[in-house]
Write a structure and sequence with these properties.
By secondary structure, the chain is mainly alpha-helical. The chain is 78% helix and 0% strand. About 6% of the residues have low confidence.
Amino acid sequence: MLFSTWLLYVVVALLSIASPGPAIFLAISNSVRYGMKAVLISSVGNIIGIFFLSALAIMGVGALLKASESMFLVLKLFGAAYLFFLGIRQWRSRKSIFTELDSNEERAEIKQTRIFSQAALLALTNPKAILFFSALFPQFLAPEHGLLPQFLILTLTFMGISFCSLMTYGLFARYVRTWMAVKRRYVVFNKFFGAAFMFFGASMLAMRMSAR
């Protein structure tokens, strides 16, 4: 793979990743609710989901989804429903987002597992990411060279950028933690992020598989 091709891919990936989306809002929410450890867990969950999306695209599943409106519709509905579920739950929450994790080790472990699976599922059901890996990703692959090394380079690059972006957003959110400790502010926070998740769910419903 040419270095210039990789640099172009980095720019495209940065533009795709840095713009606010469900994964970023989830990272910020986890940051102010549970701390940076939760952001780390959710970020790992997100990039694991990204890896599987990329692998599926390489195996042709992305192309199959592009060719099948019904399959894409099912995935889109599932992803949108999940975002609406997260949004409604956050919107209705009247609890402090700064409540510490339960000191019971077993309960904390369950919550960490939930944070990981939540982020992974969000990544796996995001049609925007599927479009990226099925429509844009293959354009950076050179058929005359080995597919596996290129797949690993491009996928790990995307995962690295995603991880750094999510951790950066999460770290930034930590600086406003004290300011957000006031009840009036954290209630507004819950409603804002609940509305944001529902907005992305509605946007997902409006998406069309146009890149065919």
